[in-house]
Amino acid sequence: MSSTIGTLFKVSTFGESHGKGVGAIVDGCPAQLELTEADLQPQLDRRRPGQNKLTTPRQESDTVTILSGIENGKTLGTPIGLFVPNQDQRPKDYQAMADIPRPSHADYTYRVKYGITTASGGGRASARETIGRVAAGAIAEKFLQHRYGVEIIAYVSSVGTITAGPVNFESITRPEVDATLIRCPDHGAAEKMATLVAAVRDEKDSVGGIITCVIRGAPAGWGDPVFDKLEARLAQAMLSLPATKGFEIGSGFAGTALRGSQHNDLFVAQRTKLTTATNQSGGVQGGISNGTPIIFRVAFKPPATIGKAQDTVDYSGQAVRLEAKGRHDPCVVPRAVPIVEAMTALILADCALLQQAYQITSSLR
Ligand SMILES: Cc1cc2nc3c(=O)[nH]c(=O)nc-3n(C[C@H](O)[C@H](O)[C@H](O)COP(=O)(O)O)c2cc1C
Q: What is the C-alpha to C-alpha distance for residues 280 and 249, in angstroms, rounded to an integer?
């Protein structure tokens, strides 16, 4: 039932796709963090629709207003209200589909659960809901950068069957990711991915992809050992995103093909601490960060709404041929890159505050 995530750094999102607007309330952001709208807009611009020919043509500037919680460019420690108006609504596009649940979208399950659905555009199931997450995530990210020097960089590592070559996790930057429209730092693969997305779009079809995310600078000790393991919290955050179908950390599913002797990350001394020679663990062991880069991947399915004809049934069970209308993404991964970064930042900011609280309250250290 909840639209809220986090224990100490707590975020609630609100708003429907074709309503007045969308946004978030951020409760628990520490006071005296320097913050203005200019800190939030760059990630919203990377997420917004209509940015290029590979994304949905819906035109939205997605300009954010901070309604509360800030004075003279600094956070007050009080709830931060964030609002982005919806501008380019075309509810008429959805009238023809009012009686037909879109295959693999949320129309049917929302109707079963609530007995009522928004007349157009997927309501809360629309990717517009993620605007609040991205705006809030930018605040979390600023806090993490400022207090701990944490960097979060996501990129597109596959589209369909086209996969990027190896990427240097120690040095990859956002400008390198944004150098191609598809947001893949391997330029050869990026070109093939963009050609595939354009071809699929022209066929009125869609295609899926994978996003890889790397976190640098997270100290050892974040996360918890049992139900709130760091990888479990990241997985929950990522699988709460629309269109996600899988999560892997470190060696992931491929690690099952290795022997322990090949898979173990051997420890090596690094000044007063230990680090590891390899990173099959993906930076997390026993649910707790070990100080090496945290690396995970998120699988996104081909978006459900396609113009290509599909034989399905309407709500009354009558056979129909659906050719979906409206403006849709042929592939969500280029726009999902800042969304994955935002959810990562929200989880890490919460873990950072929880660890801070634990260290203050634990009497032995
Ligand atoms: C950035 C982004 C853009 C999306 N754009 C579309 C779209 O244009 N059309 C569509 O049918 N689904 C789109 N989706 C996915 C739907 O919101 C999602 O598939 C739907 O809510 C059903 O949820 P589920 O796929 O998680 O089961 C998008 C998702 C993301 C993350």
A: 9
**299 CB near ligand 1 (under 6 Å):** no
* Spatial contact of 58 and 70, defined as CB atoms under 8 Å apart: no
- Tokens for 1, please give them: 């039932």
Extract long-range pairs of 111-115: CB within 8 Å, 24+ residues apart. Answer: 111/315
303 CB near ligand 1 (under 6 Å): yes
Question: pLDDT value at position 1?
Answer: 55
Ligand 1 close to Cβ of residue 154 (< 6 A): no
CATH number of 4-361: 3.60.150.10
Beta partners for residue 21, in sequence order: 85
Cα dihedral: 221, 226, 227, 229 (round 10): 30
Domain ranges of the chain: 4-361
Count of Cβ atoms closer than 10 Å to residue 3 Cβ:
14
pTM comes to: 0.97
Q: Which atom of ligand 1 is nearest to the CA of 56?
A: 8
Q: Are 274 and 281 in contact (CB under 8 A)?
A: no
| Atom of ligand 1 at shortest range from CA of 105 | 22
Percent residues over pLDDT 70 in the chain? 96
